[in-house]
Structure prediction request, 143 residues.
Amino acid sequence: MKGIYNIVTVLAISLGIGLAPPAIAENLSESSVAESQSVIEVDSYDFVVLAEDALDVGDYQNAIFHANRAIDIEPALGNAYLIRGQARAYQGEIQAAIADLEQAAQVYRQNNNQAGYLLALEYLKDLNAPTSPQALTLPELTY
Prediction:
């Protein structure tokens, strides 16, 4: 491992002062260097997808974590509250689940998402109805 580290260090120093071997230097165009320095943007919907995937496999902690990240980015995202409410319900955090589902219903209503609004109300009626995360259905995300 130390040998690999030494090779990488020498290569990095060589590249930094322009002494890279021609074969390596030819492959380092300005566009490839720029691409390696680009930033990957993540939006709230990415976190909603991660939260939904975690909920689907019963990983409620990560479902809550990712839903929180989505809410941090976009507080008016009903799906994030709905998923977090479901995950909390599965963990037995009923009061927190109710608060999330009420928030989801409010956000859906403000966004004129009738399907999401009705789904949140349905879960509020009976938090214990679903027997597994796979039984839960989420409304389609509107971008």
